[in-house]
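TL;DR need structure tokens for one chain.
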Amino acid sequence: MKGVFDSGVLISAPQFGGTPLAALRGPFVRASIAYCAEIDDEVRKALLGKVKWPRVNVERAVEELSRDFTWIELKGTLKRLSRPER
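>> reply
TL;DR here they are.
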């Protein structure tokens, strides 16, 4: 089975723990979770900007969260990774 975690799960996991974190760390996650620079940037910007976390907390959380992820390089372009700005 394949699934996709939207960036909201990656942002909510370190902020709230609970279900989002369990989804990323749970026993049903048997394969690698792919992660890329574009998603990493979005998660960091959201935690720094919208959530207002101190940079040191963001660095620690993202490092912990993505430690077991498989880093990939995108061959194309991602646009509007989350909701469009209003």
